[in-house]
Amino acid sequence: MGNIVYIGTSLDGFIADRNGGLEWLEAVPNPDNDDLGWEKFLEGIDAIVMGRKTFQTVLGFGVGWPYPKKTFVLSSTLEHLPAGFEGEVEIINGAVAGILRALNFRGYKNLYIDGGTTIRQFLSEDLIDELIINRLPILLGGGVPLFGELPEPLLFEHVQTTVLLNEMVMSRYRRKK
Ligand SMILES: NC(=O)c1ccc[n+]([C@@H]2O[C@H](COP(=O)([O-])OP(=O)(O)OC[C@H]3O[C@@H](n4cnc5c(N)ncnc54)[C@H](OP(=O)(O)O)[C@@H]3O)[C@@H](O)[C@H]2O)c1
Q1: Of 83, 143, 151, 158, which one's alpha carbon is 20 to 30 angstroms from that of 135?
Q2: What angle do CA 153, 154, 156 make, to 5 degrees?
Q3: Can you give the pLDDT at residue 1?
């Protein structure tokens, strides 16, 4: 597994709308509250690495900490965590390659990488092993992009594609080296 991205995008490749909003992720009716493989995915990872902006988005949901795995929040500005998060969340800072080495050394080998800027940094250093991308049938026309410029092309191999709720297309790709 290694470093994995698991993310919902618009057809035009945005992960949040122009206001940072995520309401469009709920646009597809899901009458049976199918978790779309989310719990199984979380079971397979050791920890989460997320950008500060994504962390603040999750805090804004106001539902407590929803993840069952240790979370490392990348930030150079956050000084304190909100009360009650100390055991579950840790703030880290620095170059992603060094962060990765430190986390692997601590036994966190399979990492869920989350947040646009964060994912793009890992990709630009060729540090993503798997991409799981769930495309929703909407064009947002702007917002936070999933992908950006890379120093060189990165080839992935297709592992599986599943149509979810007859509306969304979830594709899994593995880095091909
Ligand atoms: N569609 C989805 O499934 C999905 C999933 C996740 C997130 N999102 C959305 O994406 C948006 C957030 O993405 P984003 O691109 O704005 O930001 P992000 O990656 O969540 O956070 C960016 C911040 O992370 C910190 N950071 C990143 N790399 C760092 C490093 N190496 N060292 C120290 N700090 C580092 C910096 O925080 P400081 O400024 O504090 O230094 C930076 O401003 C939110 O709107 C969120 O809701 C959508």
Answers
A1: 151
A2: 140
A3: 76
